[in-house]
Write a structure and sequence with these properties.
homodimer, 198 residues, Alpha/beta knot, eight-stranded mixed β-sheet, 10 strands, globular, EC 2.1.1.257 (chains A, B)
Chain lengths: 198, 198
C-alpha cells in the first residue's frame, strides 16, 4: 500500500464555500484535485494499492481508498465535486467514526498530528525536501507514506511534527516540483523498482 | 529546448463548442490542460526552456512558448480558457502565418505531418511506447521532442507518420501512464541527468 498525505492549508471545511467554477478561489482546491489524479490514475485504470489522505484545515482527514473508489474521474472539477461531497458529510463524522459519503471516500475529524500517529505503523514516513537524500538511495521495496503540502510550504508546527514522525527526507530532483508532480515521480520510482524495471 | 507535441483527437476546433464548465465534454480538453500544466509548472516558477504543441483536429497547431507565457495558471479551467482563446483566433492564422492571441500562445494551420517535418531538425523525436527502450538507456543530454497522445492511442495514420519520423520509442516504466504524467516523468529524467543529479 502506497499512501500520500496532502495538507490543504486554505481549503474551506464548509462545502458551501467551494465553487466548482473557481477551484483556485476555494483555497486552491485545484492543487488537491491534481494530487488525487496523480495518485490514482493509470491509463485506463485506477491504482488500487493507493490510499490518499487530504488534511483540510487541520480539522478533517478525507481518505480516498483506491480499491473502493468508483466515481473518481480525472478532471479537476468532478474530483472537486467528490471532495465537496465529503465535506458535506463532515457533520456525520462523530468522534473517531468516519462518514462514507461515496464509494471509497471517508471523512473523519482528525488533525495532522493524529493522522501521523495513526499511520505510524503502516510503513516509513517520507517527506520531500530539496536537501533530502536522493530518492535513488532509498529502498523502493518499502511501502512508504509520503507527506506533501499544497501550494504553501509546511508551516512551523507541521515542520516540527514531521521532524518528530518522519523516517526520511527525500529529494526527487534538483527542481522544486508541485505536489501532484512529486506524486507522479514517486510512483514512477516505485513502479520501476528504483528505475530498474521497464 | 524540450518540446512536447500532444495530439488532441476530439477537441473541437470551434471555440464556441468548448464549455469551461465541462472540459471532458469538450473532447477531453482537460487532458490537454493537464499536459500544459505538467510541461510548464515548477513550484512557484515556469519552465522557460519548454515548448508545447497541441495538435487539434489534425488541422491546427497551438504553440505554447515557455519563455513568453504570461497568463498560464495551473488549474484546468483557466488553462482551457487560454486554449479556447487560441481557437478563437484561428481565422487570423493565414497560410503559414501564426496568430498570437496572448503572450506566448500561437496558433497556425498545420497538420501533424507538417508539424513533424517542421521540428525534424530541432532534436531527436521520441515517442512513448510500452515496448520501447527503457528511458534510462537514453542519453539525457539530448534535447528531445516527445510526441504524446490524449486519452486515445495513436491512430493508424499517426502510427505510420511516427514510424517514419521518430528516432526512438521509449518506455518510462511498466505502468501505462496518462500523457501529463508521462511529461512529468520525462522532465524528471532530464532534470536529474538520467537520475544522477539531485
Amino acid at each position: 500500500m502506497r499512501q500520500f498525505i496532502v495538507i490543504g492549508h486554505d481549503v474551506p471545511t464548509d462545502p458551501d464555500a467551494v465553487s466548482l467554477a473557481d477551484l483556485p478561489g476555494a483555497g486552491r482546491l485545484d492543487v488537491l484535485c491534481r494530487c488525487l489524479n496523480s495518485a490514482f490514475f493509470l491509463s485506463h485504470d485506477l491504482r488500487d494499492n493507493v490510499r490518499v489522505w487530504l488534511v483540510v484545515g487541520d480539522e478533517y482527514a478525507i481518505r480516498f481508498e483506491g480499491s473502493e473508489l468508483r466515481r473518481l474521474n480525472p478532471d479537476e472539477r468532478s474530483t472537486a465535486a467528490l471532495v465537496r461531497g465529503a465535506l458535506a458529510a463532515r457533520e456525520k463524522a462523530i468522534g473517531s467514526m468516519a462518514a462514507n459519503p461515496s464509494p471509497g471516500v471517508y471523512i473523519r475529524t482528525q488533525s495532522l498530528s493524529g493522522l501521523l500517529e495513526s499511520v505510524a505503523d503502516d510503513g516509513p514516513l517520507v517527506t520531500l525536501h530539496e536537501d533530502g537524500q536522493p530518492v535513488v538511495d532509498i529502498d523502493p521495496s518499502a511501502e512508504p507514506t509520503f507527506v506533501l503540502s499544497d501550494h504553501h510550504s509546511f508551516d512551523d508546527a507541521e515542520t516540527a511534527l514531521l521532524a518528530a514522525h518522519a523516517d526520511r527526507r527525500v529529494s526527487l530532483g534538483p527542481e522544486p516540483l508541485h505536489a501532484d508532480h512529486a506524486i507522479t515521480v514517486a510512483h514512477n520510482y516505485l513502479d520501476t523498482d528504483g528505475y530498474n524495471r521497464y
